[in-house]
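re: that chain from earlier
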Amino acid sequence: MSFFYARKRDGVYEATASTVGPWDPKLQHGSPVVSLLVTRLAKDGMRASHVSLDFLGPVPVGEMHVTTSVDRPGKKIELRSATVSVDGKPRARVTAWLLQTSDGKNPGVHLDDEPPPPMPDKAVESYFEAVPRFGYGDALEWRFAEGHFAEIGPAAVWSRLRVAIVEGEPIPQIARVLAMVDSANGISAELDVQKYLFVPVNLTVSLTREPIGEWVGMRAVTALSSDGVGTTRARLFDSRGSIGRALQTLFVEPR
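^ sequence. v structure.
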């Protein structure tokens, strides 16, 4: 499909096959979910600067209900939230801090301290070994500057969306980042994905600025303790340089 979601009516969306993750053809990947929810929270003159996603359960492919709320209203600083429910059960919740913005408000500092890695000429043609192709993987173009889906260890990747978030809607720039970032633990896995399960229970993203252009990227590193808990941290960038940071908390155990 050429989009993640079709809007059926107010607050109701149908997930397409492009949202499917690598491990179960009936379940969505987290990145389409967070990109949809945050775009439902947009407000003119303000920008989502910090996003927190909590997974409350698996999100199946199919019809979903999205509700939104303003938790802390404000002219300059506002907290909003959105929840996706399936069959009356909440499956994921996003909270986002929106900040009032205007050009030239203050000088930019430390945005160019770490230049982005060079972008390779070729996109990947395969994902995880022994895992069939899946809708979400094909919904983005992936170009690895370091590592690969099928390689163990830290990685750096460029990506761009091949599909829209919602049918008939333009793609907000923040969605280009959010549609990629929940895959950080997958590209930087430190264990064999066929032998170990590592499930992100949440995701936080802080964006210093919005990306410019179609291409965004991340350099991700995963750290694991021996008791079943891990974290993945990622530096986010575009062609100009750093745009923010992301952090995931992982539940880890043998399959």
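Residues 3-101+111-254 form a domain with the Porin fold (CATH 2.40.160.210).
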